[in-house]
Design a protein that fits this description.
By secondary structure, the chain is α+β, with helices and mostly antiparallel strands. The protein contains 4 helices and 8 strands, in the order αααββββββββα.
Length: 245
């Protein structure tokens, strides 16, 4: 009987141990299902987002133009006609056409799409309606930025109701229409306004701004000169005969 009881106790203990082992395995499986947060689909999505953010940092979002806007310099307009290096203060004839030419230096990465030109009367002339205004009249407004030359008709283009007079100290502005005549910080690669001083006068010799007399005809002028020369020679010859007689 004792032997049999001892055997029963061992069997019961083995059964209880097996049950405990099964419970432990179930708990372990449950714990394993809750612990791995790094494999959660939502976490995977955040990881992909983080990687995308990292890629964005590696690829600069700032374009070349935006960067150049911060580090580049404004550029210049240079007058080519008339040449300020040759004639620092040009003189324009009142009542004639004035040819104005210009160019941009090579670093002008953003040339004007439209150009405007305006003029200002001399200080103290009493002709400016508004002394504080940059310009008193427009010469050209929003012409194509591809142009490099413009002809100003001083007869038809000027301040309304105010005639030009002989004087020194007139001013002219050539500028990017999008920036204006007084914007000297237009941004990198854009042009700053060109401002120069000129004089105006009335021609007493019938000359144009090209230095050629109005209505000049070289053929007829040469013929007239020849006729005049023979007239003078004939008069001298006749005078000499009169003296001899």
């Amino acid at each position: 009987m004792a032997t049999q009881s001892s055997s029963s106790r061992r069997t019961s203990a083995q059964t209880e141990e097996a049950t405990n082992n099964d419970n432990t395995d179930e708990n372990t499986e449950d714990d394993q299902g809750e612990l791995p947060n790094d494999t959660n689909p939502a976490d995977d999505e955040n990881s992909e987002t983080d990687q995308n953010d990292d890629n964005d940092d590696d690829e600069p979002t700032q374009s070349f133009d935006e960067s150049y806007e911060e580090t580049g310099l404004p550029q210049l307009i240079t007058l080519t006609t008339p040449d300020l290096n040759t004639v620092p203060t040009p003189m324009f004839v009142i009542g004639e056409d004035v040819v104005i030419g210009w160019k941009y230096n090579k670093d002008t990465l953003r040339p004007p799409s439209k150009v405007s030109i305006c003029g200002k009367f001399p200080k103290g002339s009493g002709k400016s309606i508004n002394q504080a205004a940059t310009c008193d009249w427009d010469i050209a407004v929003n012409i194509s930025g591809t142009l490099r030359k413009y002809t100003w008709d001083t007869i038809t283009v000027g301040a309304p109701g105010i005639a030009f007079s002989e004087d020194t100290g007139y001013s002219m502005y050539i500028y990017d229409s999008d920036s204006g005549p007084t914007n000297y910080t237009p941004g990198a690669g854009r042009v700053i306004p060109l401002q120069f001083v000129f004089n105006m006068y009335n021609s007493r010799y019938g000359l144009t701004n090209n230095g050629v007399p109005v209505g000049y005809n070289p053929v007829s002028s040469a013929t007239n000169a020849a006729v005049h020369l023979w007239t003078v020679v004939g008069a001298i010859f006749l005078g000499a005969i009169g003296v001899l007689m």
